[in-house]
Amino acid sequence: MLTQIKGLHHVTSMAADARQNNDFFTHKLGLRRVKQTVNFDAPDVYHLYYADEFGTPGSVMTYFPFPNIGSGRHGVGEVGTTAFSVPEGTLPFWEKHFSEHGVTVEGREEKFGEKRLKFFGPDGDGFALVEDKADNRAPWLKGGVPGDEAIRGFHSVSLRLKDGGATEELLKFMGYQEVDRSGNISRLAVKNGNGADVVDIESLPGASFAGLGAGSVHHVAFAVENRAKQLEVRKALMDTGYQVTPVIDRDYFWAIYFRTPGGVLFEVATNEPGFDRDEDTAHLGEALKLPMQHQHLRSYLEKHLQPLDN
């Protein structure tokens, strides 16, 4: 069993409109935009990052807003719900806040003894807020949501799979342990993690497969401290039979990718070097930052990319 993985690093999804996406996460959820850059493989498409003040691993939601992309089709083989952690007793605040800001709410529920508020993003993305009294991570305080109610970071992701057994074994190999089970949902968590420690596996053998599009999660990334730890994880996964990419420089972290038995794309990302490598912490996300290989496109991209307004 691996010990290098310390919880979630980031979740990357797809959207249809950059300005709408930016407004939702910065104004309606109160997160900080910590980076505006572009997709490495499609530089005419933004890659937007939202998180806490520093872009701390375990708090980072990222998006590829592809203009005019079709809507995703929800099903199995994907991340179903991305859940954020909020302080205990704050769900009434969020219900009122969402009502005032036009956010579609599915409703409250209780799962594994936790109170949750389920809601949707602008592209039908499945989200939840989970009350967690033990979460002492610091929130972003300048997003328009009071600090006593603000999002702390990720709580968990939920994987919807035809058969969760093989992916559950993979997660256990990655250092996760089953901590609870309810019906067709198995809850796994990593010990001594970064606060974003939980993965739920929902087995839905009769469901149809998901189709990637706006509102779909593209991949979920797990955090390791540094490149040395990442290489240890890569070797162990390859020795177990997984097809893992070479290490890829993503400017703000180093990444490896592999496909899980259930079809979800996993990434293992380093905590280093972080989002302040090319911007002062006080000004994260304010300027368009380009990967070195796309610097020559700056004048074109500054005219072509949709203005974000803030």
TrEMBL record:
Superkingdom: Bacteria
Oxidoreductase keyword on record: yes
GO function term, MF aspect, one: dioxygenase activity
Domain VOC, residue spans: 7-132, 153-271
InterPro entries: Extradiol_RC_dioxygenase (IPR052537), Glyas_Bleomycin-R_OHBP_Dase (IPR029068), Glyas_Fos-R_dOase_dom (IPR004360), VOC_core (IPR037523)
Keywords associated with the record: Dioxygenase, Oxidoreductase
Pfam families: Glyoxalase (PF00903)
Protein name: Dioxygenase
Species assigned in the record: Mesorhizobium hungaricum
